[in-house]
Amino acid sequence: MRMQGKIGLVTGGASGMGLAFARRLAQEGAKIYFTDVNESGGKKAEDEMRRTGLSVTFLSHDVALEADWLRVLEHIRASEGRLDVLVNNAGIVMSHNIENCTAEDFDKVLNVNLKSAFLGCKHGLALMKENGGSIINMSSITAICGEPAALAYSASKAGVRFLSKSVALHCAEKGYAIRVNSLHPGYIDTPLLSGAPSRLSEAEALTVRSRIGGEIPFKRRGTPDEVAGAVLYLASDDSVYVTGSELVVDGGYACH
Q1: Which key words tag this protein in UniProt (predicted)?
Q2: Residue burial 86-122, b: 16+ Cβ < 10 Å; e: rest
């Protein structure tokens, strides 16, 4: 198994892609801690995975709060003594454009999507730099192509894209043997996408869905399990010479 003996942390792991990532890494032999603000969903996911024999532990965690990061990482340090893989996955989506996005909307999205990746990288390094490892920061295809109906989300994920490069260079210069890469999913069927709060009119939302559907060369949205394969690659030693890179998993959407 490709992750045997590894210790991993996946944020936003109660559902959607985060749950798929936690499950896939655990299936490959890793001991996984996964976190979420959704405590009931996290506990349910923990129970379901444990019943199949997977080594997983759920921890409640608001990724926008530095104190929560320190608490979660201290728990892992006390229990395991190290961290090999960090997947900064937690995020939110709000549908709005430059004219109807409020300052409050913008701040909320950047706090959860970008600030959380900063906090995870900053404090995760302390547990990783002695033994090395892999940090995977979830960005998005919207950080490459842009999306007029997801202003703050696009901005936050573009920030994650270049935060990852900066941290990758820092780790290389310090000789930490920590790989840092960004992963850019396209339009994936998850609760995050289908349940996103919207300030768009019904007509605007319909136009966006129609446009997106017509621009995916594979003619369908992706699944969380399809993205999980890319996470496994970046988490495992198969990507030992890969850092500062952008891995796109989008059914060809970025080709436009």
Answers
A1: Oxidoreductase
A2: bbbbbbbbbbbeeeebeeebbebbbbbbbbbbbbbbe
pLDDT tens digits along 35-58: 999 999 999 999 999 999 999 999
236 to 60, 190, 226, 232: CA distances (angstroms): 26, 24, 16, 6
CB atoms within 10 A of CB 126: 11
203: burial class by Cβ within 10 Å (0-12, 13-18, 19+)? exposed
| Contact indicator for 62, 115 with CB cutoff of 8 Å | no
Residue-wise pLDDT tens digits, 168-225: 999 999 999 999 999 999 988 876 555 555 554 665 655 556 666 668 888 788 899 9
Per-residue pLDDT at 255: 85
Please state the domain extents for the chain.
Answer: 7-249
Separation between Cα atoms, residue 191 and residue 224, nearest integer Å: 11
What pTM value is reported for the model? 0.93
Q: Of residues 33, 153, 187, 253, which has the active-site annotation?
A: 153
CB atoms within 10 A of CB 213: 12
Distance (Å, whole) CA 93 – CA 113: 9
153 is catalytic: yes
Angstrom CA distances, 56 to 135, 149, 162, stand at 19, 36, 31
Does the CA dihedral 36-42-48-54 come out positive or negative?
Answer: positive
At 47, is the secondary structure helix, strand, or coil? helix
CATH superfamily, region 7-249: NAD(P)-binding Rossmann-like Domain (3.40.50.720)
